[in-house]
Amino acid sequence: MAEPKKLFIKTYGCQMNVYDSERMAEALGGQGYEQTSSPEDADMILLNTCHIREKAAEKVYSELGRFKGLKAEKPDLKIGVAGCVAQAEGAEIMRRQPMVDLVVGPQSYHRLPELEARTRAGQKALDTDFPQEDKFEHLRSRPKAKRGPTAFLTVQEGCDKFCAFCVVPYTRGAEVSRPVERVVTEARDLVERGVREITLLGQNVNAYHGAGPDGADWSLAQLIWELDKVDGLERIRFTTSHPNDMTDDLIEAHGTCAKLMPYLHLPVQAGSDRILKRMNRAHTAESYVRLIEKIRAARPDILISGDFIVGFPEETAADFQSTMDLVAEVKYGSAYSFKYSTRPGTPAAERDQVPEAEKTDRLHRLQALLTTQQRAAQDKMVNKTVGVLFERPGRLPGQMVGKSDHLHAVHVADCTADAGTLAKVRIISSEANSLAGALIG
Ligand code: SF4
User: Is the CB of 163 under 6 A from ligand 1?
Assistant: First the structure.
């Protein structure tokens, strides 16, 4: 029986890259690989990269540089680059770093077994196609081993929105939705392996339009109601959404589907209509705020999360003030905020840039406001009883940690609940980025 080969995967970026890394490890599992957490022990090193920020590609090249020594010591060591930088840079990666054996894009990693075999035959392997075949149909069926209580599940990929700052439409391609039955089957498998909470993933997940069992196109809400029937699946979440694809049936589901958690990540990026237009977001600040009101009418306790870019090209102080005004009006329970960063090949990259110092100042002011709001949302939970899905032991002996329905981190001392337990917890106090609670019953 051949010794198992060791695979070290390093994942950057979004939840979808986390999901892709799981599937790539499973695909190479068929080639006799098992995962290792140390690159020194690896027979193959795979970097699953993200292209969302400036200098993303440069970071990959410097990371690769770290493995030069390892490759010199172990000539049979194979080095691969996957993900969005692989898709964007392709053969350039091998030109700049000749020690790289394999480059594979996010749409063709189902071909990893044959690409890996090619590298074992001493060839270079490059595949950044957008293949006709559906990669999920060609991926190995998922292993049956038990796993933790939460999982990501990609249901939609790619994006047709072409926001002026974003590389996703170029690195992930056009929107593709997986058939309903395939998604439900994978969800059932995950539940059998111990999963209680599934987060449905897509670059534009609420634009989901997968083929239903009746042959018609099903919306994300229809898919959620189908998953609602899966015994043992207790919680459903989804990310990332676009305001223009928040359909009425999805808003209604937030009000009526008990398994759909009261948390919605709905990026807006900016509060100025002029900047939203320049970003090609195809909606106004007003329509976004009206949408939030409609969602809150359906589910009053829903926690709204957002994404923000400050210092987008040509953003004036007045434009930025509009962002601050929108944030003050919406009141976010959590948010991610970044300085605009030039992405090669995107329309905004060619425009007049806002000075770095100005960007930094705006980011600090926005984050100060968002932190106040996030804290207020947490403080509101004190003395309330919430559902918590425990995920793992905490730092302190006897402590368990998990997430509430609103995706707040919750820790409970002297906790008798195991990982995978969904329990009622009374919130005792609110801390910087988490809540402390006591188990009820
Ligand atoms: S909707 Fe999101 S993924 Fe699509 S182009 Fe815009 S920012 Fe990128």
Answer: yes
